[in-house]
From TrEMBL:
Residues 48-241 form the F-box associated beta-propeller type domain. Coiled coil: none annotated. This is F-box associated beta-propeller type 1 domain-containing protein. InterPro entries: F-box-assoc_dom_typ1, F-box-assoc_interact_dom, SCF_F-box_component.
Amino acid sequence: MLHLNKPVHPYRESRHLLLSFENSKNDIIASPSPLITNPPIPNVGMYDRVRAVGSCNGLVCISVSYNHCGTKDDLLFLLWNPAIGQSRFLPKPKCSTVSPSVIFEFGYVPETNDYVIVKLDKEERLRFEVYKSSLDSWRVIDSAVVENHITLKRDESSVFVNGCFHWRSLNYARDRIISYELVSEKVGLIKALDNGVAGSECWKLTVVEDSLAMLFYNYIMFELWIMVDYNVHDSWDLRFRIVDDGNRLLYPLGCLRNGLIMITYEEDYVGVYLHDLITEQKTEISKVPHGWRINGFSSYSETLLPLC
């Protein structure tokens, strides 16, 4: 995870960009931002595996997995405020072992002033566990509406829109978008769009103009479709189509709420760019060495409020 020490765009709101990246052996969390003076993550051992879950209101949620006495990895979650150096571990989930299929998300519910962690695990059937800061505990959520024969992508972040987390899922017959509403705690399914161009796995979710959106890509071009009316399949609308005429591989990471698309061009290195869809201006914000993979991003802004 990387905190970039520059605003997202010179004439847009001044926030920091949070990138999470990893290779086959390590997850790295660093902060070169002068505003938070590069603090180390407290209470985390050098051999523990750490992963950025997300950032809300200046708080960063980190998953920490560690091997205990040669058994399966145990899982803990750490809430961390880098600006003031405070952190605390949360209670263990009901199932605290780590599997290759586990996915985590971090969000905030303003209606109840709750910070929420959603944990999905798909070993036998889809299992939702939800942590709420107001209760300081975990509970299991019914997910019977979701089919058993689906595939979730662990290295893709969810998107949050309309009060719900959304995940891309694949099954043998058709693609679906899994939703989880934070207030009602209900799990649902949304039919995904088939644009007839890219392969079934070459799409991902994002948010544009506070609407659910899908990015289709085949590494030399991508299309952006927006669901104008939430959960209305006929309302998908094509907004942008970008074709790269060079020799670079084109991979969209997603959209920021200010309308910029993050795109990774792979040449001699992996370059991370901001692409303004209105002006078509490209700005390089980071270079990532080969062997490292970016698996998610979000915006981050500092807060001086203490942890509860």
